[in-house]
């Protein structure tokens, strides 16, 4: 059975992260964790006691990961860069607020039969025009700001760049989707080999963490290995339950347990101990003790 690497970006809720680690602890897994630099009162030391079968690696580099900024991509690439040293069959990027919905043995069996499919989510056949503007022009205000002067400056800088098009400059077709994925060792190596290109194209853009991988893939041979049910904003393409209709995204509750377990998906996002701890405990028991 081939080994998998789980890459976790965590920024709060140590109890939820502990449960996620327990659910991923399996003899054919290694777990890589990035703890946000802003999480100053947690160093991850306690996480090691929840790992009995896997190897756990907590990244020494801690980035201040902020919404919409290049720090998101930097963190993802750093996790991939660390894990690819050991070469796994699949690499799964997860948030610290996600959980698996199946025991690891079942998840491995699903991916063993996948024939090297790249589980990457795409919103639509073509990128939305507003999103394209965000990532095809230089932007020095990566995060949304409530300051009026920054809003004015952002729109002014965008307007002055009416001739700038990073897609055309680098000969790339841009694409967009969710930043959570399950991808093969060959694709991970391709990402790392192109990290300088990723930086050139996306360092001064907004929300490119949902664009950089999709863009690399559709401009490469890997576009022929994309998961089915795709280019239609379907999270089955990454074997995830994610609900944007009831939230941003919706936080699952105890009442959603049967829906999640019956979904046939491998993962779900998102959960919050402070909103509903019962659903988290039930999924943990299902995954570990069924």
Written account of the structure:
35% of the residues lie in helices and 13% in strands. The protein contains 11 helices and 8 strands. With 290 residues, it is α/β, with parallel strands linked by helices. The longest helix is centred in the first third of the chain and has 13 residues. Strand 1, helix 1 and strand 2 form a beta-alpha-beta unit. Helix 1 packs parallel to helix 11. The chain folds into 2 domains: 239 residues, Spore Coat Polysaccharide Biosynthesis Protein SpsA, Chain A (Alpha-Beta Complex), CATH 3.90.550; 41 residues, no CATH class. It has a 5-stranded mixed beta sheet with strand order 3-2-1-4-6, with helices on both faces. A 3-stranded mixed beta sheet has the order 5-8-7.
Descriptive terms for the model:
three-stranded mixed beta sheet; 35% helix; alpha/beta; 2 domains; 11 helices; five-stranded mixed beta sheet; Spore Coat Polysaccharide Biosynthesis Protein SpsA, Chain A; 290 residues
Write the layout of secondary structure elements.
Elements: E1 4-10, H1 14-24, E2 29-35, E3 55-58, H2 71-83, E4 90-95, E5 98-100, H3 104-112, H4 129-136, H5 148-160, H6 166-170, E6 181-184, H7 185-193, H8 195-202, H9 212-218, E7 240-242, H10 257-261, E8 267-269, H11 277-289
Parallel strand pairs: 1-2, 1-4, 2-3, 7-8
Antiparallel strand pairs: 4-6, 5-8
């Amino acid at each position: 059975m081939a080994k998998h690497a789980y890459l976790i970006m965590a920024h709060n809720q140590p109890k939820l992260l502990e449960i996620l680690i327990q659910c991923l602890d399996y003899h054919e897994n290694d777990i890589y964790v990035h703890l946000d630099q802003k999480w100053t009162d947690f160093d991850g030391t306690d996480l090691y006691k929840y790992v009995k079968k896997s190897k756990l690696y907590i990244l020494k580099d801690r980035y201040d990961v902020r919404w919409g900024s290049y720090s998101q991509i930097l963190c993802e690439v750093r996790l991939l860069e660390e894990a690819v040293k050991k070469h796994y069959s699949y690499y799964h990027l997860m948030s610290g607020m996600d959980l698996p919905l199946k025991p690891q043995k079942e998840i491995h069996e699903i991916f063993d039969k996948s024939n090297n499919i790249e589980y990457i989510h795409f919103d639509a056949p073509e990128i939305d025009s507003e999103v394209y503007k965000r990532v095809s022009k230089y932007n020095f205000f990566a995060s949304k700001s409530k300051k009026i002067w920054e809003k004015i400056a952002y729109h002014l800088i965008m307007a002055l760049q009416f001739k700038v098009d990073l897609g055309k400059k680098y000969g790339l077709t841009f694409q967009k989707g969710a930043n959570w994925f399950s991808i093969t060792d060959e694709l991970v190596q391709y990402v790392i080999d192109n990290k300088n290109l990723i930086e050139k194209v996306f360092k001064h853009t907004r929300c490119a963490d949902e664009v950089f991988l999709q863009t690399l893939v559709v401009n490469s041979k890997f576009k022929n290995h994309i998961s089915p049910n795709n280019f239609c904003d379907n999270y089955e393409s990454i074997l995830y339950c994610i609900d944007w209709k009831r939230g941003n995204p919706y936080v699952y509750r105890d009442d959603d347990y049967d829906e999640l377990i019956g979904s046939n998906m491998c993962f779900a996002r998102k959960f919050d101990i402070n909103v509903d701890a019962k659903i988290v405990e039930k999924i943990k028991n299902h995954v570990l003790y069924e």
